Amino acid sequence: MNKALAYEWFRVRSLRSTWVLLVSAGVVQFASGLYWGLKRDLGDLDAFVSSFGLTARLGALLVAAVGVCAFGLDYQHGTIAITRLVVRAPGRIVAARAMVTGGLGLAAGVLMVLLAGAGVLAGGGTLPSDAARAAVAAGGVVPLTVLSGLAGVALGGLLRHTAAGVGLFAVWALVAETILGTVVKVPLTALPFNGTALLSTGTPGWTGALVFAALVAVALTATKFTLARRDT
């Protein structure tokens, strides 16, 4: 397994897209923090918590793109054969990519939280006096980025195409779940992506995150089986 992790870490850090996407997620979150920090008529709103609205979702989408690239680029560039020769076991390939991408998702979530706070302070705002509320909001960003990255890995492995994987994730997260919530009347807290994203705004409840985690587990398992069947 150590060999698989070393191979995957070398692969992912050598891709310029990895760092561009992760830095972009942080920049977007800083800009949101700055925007809210500059506001002076917030009323009962909190600048730090409010900065995690739409931008937390956009940041998670960028992290998901990193995950999709893990398999999508391998297939598009024809290097999946090299990956199979080096790592061999499909289960180890999927596990290594999930672990490395999950770690990057964790780092991205922490970076987004730190830059959101920095943006608020740069705009002349103040960090929340309610530490518990701030901690809940900040803690909600991390599972969103981690699960989004893992979902991206699964989509890249199942679809074998970067654009298709990112596009499907975006359509599901930003369109399909909106329809489910507004038309079908599925509770927003129960939706995998948006339910998890609500945690970053201080909304209680982990139903969406648990659903998201279950779907990711199923998708990664399916990726392992399809990898074994397609490339043997």
Concise synopsis of the structure shown:
This protein is an all-alpha fold and 232 residues long. It has helices at 2-13, 16-38, 47-50, 54-76, 80-87, 90-122, 131-159, 162-182, 192-199, 207-230.
Structure write-up:
This protein has helices spanning 2-13, 16-38, 47-50, 54-76, 80-87, 90-122, 131-159, 162-182, 192-199, 207-230. The chain contains 10 helices and no strands. The longest helix is centred in the middle third of the chain and has 33 residues, at 90-122. The protein has one domain (1-230). The model has no long low-confidence stretch (mean pLDDT 87). It starts with a helix and ends with a helix. The chain is globular. It is an all-alpha fold and 232 residues long.
Provide tags for this entry.
232 residues, mainly alpha
Set out the fold topology.
Elements: H1 2-13, H2 16-38, H3 47-50, H4 54-76, H5 80-87, H6 90-122, H7 131-159, H8 162-182, H9 192-199, H10 207-230
Helix pairs in contact: 1-6, 2-4, 2-6, 4-6, 4-7, 4-8, 6-7, 6-10, 7-8, 7-9, 7-10, 9-10
Quote the distance from N terminus to C terminus: 20 Å
Shape: globular
Poorly predicted regions: none
Which secondary-structure class do the elements indicate? mainly alpha
Number of helices: 10
Order of helices and strands: HHHHHHHHHH
The count of domains is 1
Let me know the number of strands: 0
| Helix content estimate | over 70%
Largest sheet features = none
Mean pLDDT: 87
How large a portion of the residues is in β-strands, by DSSP E? under 5%
- Rg, Å, rounded: 18 Å
Transmembrane segments: 20-38, 50-73, 94-122, 134-159, 166-186, 206-227
Protein name: ABC-2 type transport system permease protein
Keywords: Membrane, Transmembrane, Transmembrane helix
